[in-house]
Each structure stands twice: as structure tokens, then as C-alpha cells.
Design goal:
Strand content: 5-15%
Mean pLDDT: 86
Number of strands: 3
Helix content: 40-55%
Distance between the termini: 59 Å
Low-confidence stretches: none
Order of helices and strands: EHHEEHHH
Strand order of the largest sheet: 1-3-2
Number of helices: 5
Largest sheet: 3 strands, antiparallel
Shape: elongated
Length: about 100
């Protein structure tokens, strides 16, 4: 099976730029179709060390203050997923009202 660079990056738990570097350096063979590189799944898994756990890299349990902070960030990310946020400039203007 062949994957595009973004799909290969998700599968390997790496950035698309890393996958492109592997292709450009010759470490990862690919077929170019139009302007897209297609990567073979077996070659990707061999180079990346297999498929990571579902959802990306394996999770590490962090305790204490940092662990609590990470859990809160994760919960906020889940809450905001799929929402469209206002532009940053608008948020700054709103925060400065009443000064």
C-alpha cells in the first residue's frame, strides 16, 4: 500500500517535513506522481521502527504539577477540537476593553 507524505507522517508519528527529508536523502524510497511523493508502507515501517500506538507516539505517564498541567492541556484540546477560534488580534482587543 502507498501513502502520501502527510499520511506517512501520521503513521510514523513524525512531521511531514521529516518524511520529505527521508525521501530527499534517499533513506525512504518513494514514487512521484504529479507533485506528490507516494511512500510504501513496508519501507516506512522499516525505517520508522514500526507503527506507533493508535493516535501517535506512545503516551508517558507524568506525575505531579507537570502531569496535572498536561492533563488540563489535553482536556482543553479535546474541548476545542473542531471549533473555530477568533483571530488573535480580536482576542487581544477584547482583553484590553475597559482599561
Amino acid at each position: 500500500m502507498k501513502l502520501t507524505v502527510p499520511a506517512a507522517a501520521r503513521r510514523a508519528g513524525r512531521s511531514p517535513e521529516t518524511i520529505r527529508r527521508w525521501i530527499w536523502s534517499g533513506r525512504l524510497p518513494s514514487d512521484k506522481v504529479g507533485n506528490q511523493h507516494l511512500v510504501d508502507v513496508d519501507a516506512l515501517d522499516a525505517l520508522a521502527g514500526g507503527v506507533p500506538a493508535a493516535g501517535g507516539a506512545p503516551r508517558v505517564k507524568v506525575e505531579g504539577e507537570w502531569g496535572e498541567w498536561l492533563r488540563r492541556v489535553d482536556a482543553l484540546g479535546k474541548e476545542l477540537r473542531g471549533r473555530r477560534l477568533p483571530p488573535a488580534a480580536e482576542l487581544v482587543r477584547e482583553s484590553r476593553k475597559g482599561r
